[in-house]
Amino acid sequence: MSTPTAPAHPTRISLAVRDSSTMLRRNLLHARRYPSLTLNLLLTPVMLLLLFVYIFGDAMSAGLGGGADRSDYIAYLVPGLLLMTVGSTTIGTAVSVSTDMAEGIIARFRTMAIHRGSVLIGHVIGSVLQCLMSVVLVGAVAVAIGFRSTDATALEWVAAFGLITLFALALTWIAVGMGLVSPNAEAASNNAMPLIFLPLISSTFVPLHTMPGWFQPIAEYQPFTPAIETLRGLLLGTPIGHNGWLAIAWCVGLAVLGYFWSASKFNSEPK
């Protein structure tokens, strides 16, 4: 008669996956129960899209040169606003993390027998999913008002999706760090405002060469501009040049910085 074997103990990786999945479900449930923050942040790029197309479209298209019209400006504008949508959506992550800190749930999670990193991983994965859904919604509005990307191949669409996902991951880790160091939700929202402000001083709305000479380096040497130019090139067939490598470097650098910043702050014992 064979003796029963003892059940296998779950590995460290399986525990991390299980706990991270639980935290992901928790964050998605919170987002579903309190959608007002996500909707408010989503309205910003949508309103800017409609404003710049229907109010300023004819005037702004003149900056593109070559007899460009409003339809040309829609094509130019949309890639930048898609990445601006990512930036605005991640502000909700900073607020959510800060709220968890202020309400003490993070401190409680620290005392529970769960994988410590699962709390942050759940926030990050949930935020990236929300970013992608927001991008799809803004993209649908753009298509409804005339945006077309007929020249992009299937491979370029996959590359564009990968870039948006990587960009969302990088900004989300930065937003998590901002949430962890903020004393309350209002401070987290204020600290994360650069994620909306930086696209406004990038190549989202006008080409770099139309800006004043002293301002061009400010707009060029920041994370949004190379990512926007890369996404624009993938969707519209415009030259990408060195922007592709710069965009990847910015994404990887910000993701690594945000991860270590967030992990250090999360693992430090409260004083």
Automatic annotation (TrEMBL):
The chain crosses the membrane at residues 34-56, 76-98, 119-145, 157-181, 193-215, 244-262. The keyword Transport applies. Keywords: Antibiotic resistance, Cell membrane, Membrane, Transmembrane, Transmembrane helix, Transport. Residues 36-269 form the ABC transmembrane type-2 domain. It is found in: Cell membrane; Membrane. It is a multi-pass membrane protein. Its main location: membrane. The keyword Electron transport does not apply. It comes from the Bacteria. InterPro entries: ABC2_TM, ABC2_TM_bact-type, ABC_2_transport, Nod_factor_ABC_transporter. Belongs to the ABC-2 integral membrane protein family. This is Transport permease protein. The lineage of its organism: Bacteria, Bacillati, Actinomycetota, Actinomycetes, Kitasatosporales.
